[in-house]
Amino acid sequence: MQKPVFYDFEASGLDGFPIEVGWAFVDDQKRIVSDSSLILPDPKWNLPAKWDQSAEQIHGISLKHLMEKGIPARQVAQQLNQVLAAQNLYSDSLFDQKWMGQLFEAAGLSPAFVLQDTPAPVIIEQLRAQLGLTDDDVAGLYRVVDHKAPHLDRAQPDARHWAARWQALLKLPGS
Predict the structure, then answer these.
(1) pLDDT tens profile 144-158
(2) pTM score above 0.85
(3) SS3 labels along 74-86
(4) Could you report the per-residue pLDDT of 82-134, keeping only the tens digit for each?
(5) Which of 61, 69, 149, 174 lies 20 to 30 A from 40 at CA?
(6) Could you give the residue ranges of the DSSP H alpha helices within the chain?
(7) How far is residue 175 CA from its own chain's centroid?
(8) Architecture of domain 4-170
(9) Extended beta strands in 4-73, E state
(10) How far apart are CA 6 and CA 120, in angstroms?
């Protein structure tokens, strides 16, 4: 099974635009490699009109902070293509595919990687099954992993959450 790359987006709202992308994968030494970028809104997005205050409360990224620290969409897309070329990317939400499309459309580029339709939890469960582990075998392991790498509603930690589960399975004896 090819090493998956887990990715996640934060957005201005469910009907909005991407404002942060994060990714994570387990390297050959079974370490997690990850990164993220804040995305400077493309002028065509009219982001202030699509800014949802409840989304801001969830992810904690203010429009002011985004405007000060964001990176242009083209630069973010180029970085993703450079680092993740020819990889298979998995997310836990179909919204993330939409936001990846918006990012690359604004950048005027095509992804150099493949977005998979299989959700991140499913690909992890496929590895669990391939290793012959039951739900009971991994329940305690997942509790420990989820405590160390929680789902935080920020792009990089959320991508790392799924990579940490993958890593934990790979580190089990016999993997």
Answers:
(1) 999 999 889 999 999
(2) yes
(3) HHHHHHHHHHHCC
(4) 999 999 999 999 999 999 999 999 999 999 999 999 999 999 999 999 999 99
(5) 149
(6) 53-59, 63-69, 73-84, 94-107, 120-130, 135-148, 155-170
(7) 25
(8) 2-Layer Sandwich (3.30)
(9) 4-11, 18-26, 32-40, 71-72
(10) 7
